Amino acid sequence: MHTVADAVLVEDVAGALRVVAELARRLPVRMETRRDPPRDLSLSVLFGIALALELDPRNRTSRQNMAELRRRQGRPEEALASFARALSLDPNLESARAGAEQLRKTLRERGE
Question: Is the pLDDT of residue 11 over 90?
Answer without folding.
Answer: no
